[in-house]
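## retry 2 of 3
previous attempt timed out at serialization; input unchanged, resubmitting
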Amino acid sequence: MTTPSDIAAPAPFGWCHWHKGPSGTAVMVDIVEQNSGPGAGLYACAPCREQRGLVPVVEQAHEVAYRDYLLHTTDCAGCSRIGRCEVGSRLRDFYQKALDGAA
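## retry succeeded, writing output
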């Protein structure tokens, strides 16, 4: 009898916008913003990321800094709509600098 643990999980499927083909290793490397309508994500497979020096969005400095800032301000009693604690202010400044460098 076959059990769920005996069945192999399907390979992940993705699309690489760089070599324009299917990939099991594609991750989002860029976000295309639009003025109206939804934006779009661009995905690259592992070989294309390595060849072109592409960094996954979740590892880009501005994304990491923004995540740290949000996590802090969510739990910090000293951060509110009116102001931020010292740590919250430093995290926001770091995020702003990373964002300026990404542009």
